[in-house]
Amino acid sequence: MKINIIYKLLTFILLFSAGKISAQIGIFTSNPAQPLQIDAAKDNGATPDAAKLSNDVVVTSEGRLGIGVLNPVTKVDLRSSDNKGIIGLGTNIQTPSEAGAGAIRYNTNGFIEYSDGVSWIALPLNPPAKALVNANKSSAQSISNASSTFINGWAETADSGTGAGGDFDPANGIFTAPRDGFYLVSFSITLASGNIPKNTFIETAIESNQSTDNIPIFKTVNSYPAFQAGAVSNYLSGNCNAIFNLKKDDTIKFSVKHNIGSARNTLNDGKLNNLSISEL
Predict the structure, then answer these.
(1) Sheet order of strands, 36-39 included
(2) Which InterPro entries match (predicted)?
């Protein structure tokens, strides 16, 4: 009878204690840094360094699992100091809907697939081709005096874009970035021959709609400050170069401005009117 009472008392104490325990649990380590920490190699000691922690597994109060990392910042974090934080994927016979959108698996044909909930989709084996555009302009376009005119009516000689029409629209002269990245841009234009009064200029400009990480517009100015006769007849030309840090779907366009006193057409020679855009 006494033994039965003792057992009941111990059971009550254990149940009461289990409801109140909030201490962290350490397996093979006496000083767990998270609610659960397992020192697989039993080598942490009093002051473990990064190398010793690389064989530990932790679970945080937010439910994050860290393998080789003491403070995981994602649901599963493998970024340990030994640079062996990789995942080994196996094959899978589940349908895409069974696996769910976001699941990934290894295909025995030698590539990785992910599920969108409907289909298994193979990840590309090669990175996408870098954006490359070359274009020239052989048609005349009127450039008004003292106002910026965007150049259109280009003829493409190269466009690596895979979408409909590529990355550059030659009709309106606008380039659309296919992805985040840095783009090297070059632009040259020549106006037809005519009088060039003194104290005049031609300005060529490359403009982006992305102003957060960029100078939004790059300009080059060629000036004609003091011709002796007051005017001389010749071609007007200018060029501009820039590097833009673009986000996907940001745009670039090209403009010309002058103050020679009257409208002037672009020269109808594609060798002297051209642009190029190269993704770095």
Answers:
(1) 25-27, 36-39, 56-59, 65-67, 76-77
(2) Tumour_necrosis_fac-like_dom
Tokens of 207: 């403009």
Six token digits for residue 278: 């190269």
Plot region of 15 (φ>0 → left; ψ -120 to 50 → alpha; else → beta): alpha
- 151 CB-contact burial (10 Å; exposed 0-12 / middle 13-18 / buried 19+): buried
- Could you tell me if residue 260 is left (phi over 0), alpha (psi between -120 and 50 degrees) or otherwise beta? alpha
Q: Specify the DSSP element, H or E, that contains 265.
A: strand 264-265
Query: Who's near 127: CB < 8 A, 6+ residues apart?
Result: none
Q: Which residues have a Cβ under 8 Å from the Cβ of 79 and sit 6 or more positions away?
A: 68, 69, 85
Q: How far is the C-alpha of 239 from the C-alpha of 71, rounded, in Å?
A: 53
User: Which residues neighbour 273 within 8 Å (Cβ) at sequence distance 6 or greater?
Assistant: 136, 137, 138, 151, 188, 189, 190, 266, 267
- Rounded average pLDDT over 53-61: 89
pTM here is 0.62
Tokens of 267: 């020269």
> Could you give all domains of the chain from N- to C-terminal order, each with its CATH number?
132-279 (2.60.120.40)
pLDDT band at 51 (very low <50, low <70, confident <90, very high): confident
